[in-house]
Amino acid sequence: xxxxxxxxxxxxxxxxxxxxxxxxxxxxxxxxxxxxxxxxxxxxxxxxxxxxxxxxxxxxxxxxxxxxxxxxxxxxxxxxxxxxxxxxxxxxxxxxxxxxxxxxxxxxxxxxxxxxxxxxxxxxxxxxxxxxxxxxxxxxxxxxxxxxxxxxxxxxxxxxxxxxxxxxxxxxxxxxxxxxxxxxxxxxxxxxxxxxxxxxxxxxxxxxxxxxxxxxxxxxxxxxxxxxxxxxxxxxxxxxxxxxxxxxxxxxxxxxxxxxxxxxxxxxxxxxxxxxxxxxxxxxxxxxxxxxxxxxxxxxxxxxxxxxxxxxxxxxxxxxxxxxxxxxxxxxxxxxxxxx
Length: 340
Hints:
The chain is of the alpha/beta class. The chain has twelve helices and twelve strands. Strands 3-4-2-1-5-12-11-6-7-10-8-9 form a twelve-stranded mixed sheet, with helices on both faces. Helix 8 (187-203) packs parallel to helix 9 (230-244). The longest helix is centred in the middle third of the chain and has 17 residues, at 187-203.
């Protein structure tokens, strides 16, 4: 029998300082006695204290060694400083915050790599603000893939999955315009994405034989070529390749009929061809409880399934539900990976 690993906290990132990340971090910690797993905050401790005062919340934040985070968590939010202070005025975007946002993500991944944390949980970032600062990645998913190569020496293809209680969805193409999708979507891309999804659902979610429902690109999955030939020429061959690899895949299915209650019972995950095809149904069904999970990485990463909500920052109206769900799922996946 292998020796059981010690308990570890989750590594929670800063997110955009002007958004609701600090608000929901504070609220998640205040819910710690209601099943919120321990975490360590990778960011500016003073920012949390300022936001707590604005919200009228009584909290403590303690700068600490990551190894002491579990002991600290019942009394205070443990914080590993990233050496970059931020102003973090609620509702205000500043490109000067980019270094702190990026460094927080890197620090969280390093904590997991070094064995000080069990998984990464990311607060929402503002993509446009980061891009204007020179950040070369469309979003979290692509940056985490780059960090996998830099910090782990692993070239990985990160896959974004959104998960709720009744639905899991994966967009095959992610942060690109709708006009670009037909040119980017290939049989190879669908097959590689499907294989990663099936593998991770088995390894991390304990689904022995995952069932993949593959959406068509065009209305009515092309209607036998009347509405575009991509479904016959690109999507259908991908499904056949997945089946030949032993994966239970079906489709291409019309996207307008594959997300109702009865249809969802027939699959474990829906592979969608573009961003909104996947995110509209999951956010309709689980707006407050949905979790973003990045598959294909050498570490576990989850995130709330919402944005920075700048208009709610500092108001007390932001809900921590999705962050709490992300923390709980990250902890569940990390525990499943531990030897017993």
